[in-house]
Amino acid sequence: MNIDDLFNKLLILRSPNIGPVKYAQLIKQYGSPAAVIDVLKPDDAIRDLVLREIERAKQLNIYYICDDMAEYPKLLRTVANHPPVLAVRGNVAALQKETVSIVGTRHATAAGMNFIANLAKDFAGHNYAVVSGMAMGTDTAAHRGALRAAGNSQTIAVLAGGVDYIWPTENESLYWEIVERGAVISEMPVGFVPVAANFVMRNRWVAGISQNLILGEADLKSGSMKTVKFACESNRKIWAIPSHPSDSRAIGPNSLIKSGAAKLCDSVSDFFKNEQFDIDKTKNEKKSDSENSLLDALGTIPVSESVLSEIVKKTISEIKRDLVILELQGLVRKVDGGYVRL
Q1: What is the DSSP letter of 154?
Q2: Which CATH architecture has domain 287-341?
Q3: What are 251-301's pLDDT values in tens digits?
Q4: Count of C-beta atoms within a 10 Å radius of residue 50
Q5: Burial of 342 per CB tally in 10 Å (0-12, 13-18, 19+)
Q6: For the chain, N or C: smaller number of CB within 10 Å?
């Protein structure tokens, strides 16, 4: 990369009231970043700011990729007014993989997150990089699921703040895992603390970087529904995971499926049909007969340990042992009145 060219591009982008839209207009009008700089004549304060940012990025092993470079995500380049420059921390090669974007509510159910994690792992196993926004709930499940697959560069986190700004703080350990085995990217300056509008733009890039967007649990006012809107605007394929209609978090995906705006997604086999891969079937094959009997006896209505003991003809201690195993696998949950299946 030409350092002078990068410096000029960042000078434009870090100047007041200039974002991707204005940047594109200026480049079109004047022909090159250098020509724009001749017109803008940024003051010494802006120049010093950009120099400090570049130096800070170098210290933190943060890279810059521009939209005229081969490393820039090819599908994101096709989005109108995409970020001219991205900061990347981690493995830049991750941005050249086939990608799938997965989004959903921060307040996802345990069952929803378990499904998302398994789906993400399966995509990563097919050499896809799973893209999400590193928020709590669905995003976290998507990233962690992808990281369960073997190999590197399995997931990409798109941040609303600077690429070095870890948010939410609860995901600090996840952040470093992604840096180690995938990539964290942002259009914002190094060290930038995001505001609400930045998360909206972050969602636009999550939608634009992949050909397929998968929506998990989300109510109608969820930010994830805005991500779906952005994906539609960029002519991406929308998929939705159906949920129980009594849960408000099912309204988003269920409504998209019902209206025909999204295709139903119930396993990775929807994308790799020749493999006929069934997540639930694989899980059940790995369980012992007694564990399968317990699962068959459970549903959405709580069942006590004593009743389960009578149904599957096991002692209470055996029932407790098997329930602990199933709970650790994320397949059952203890609630008032007993256990329910997830």
Answers
A1: -
A2: Orthogonal Bundle (1.10)
A3: 999 999 999 999 999 889 889 875 544 444 444 444 444 456 788 788 777
A4: 22
A5: buried
A6: N
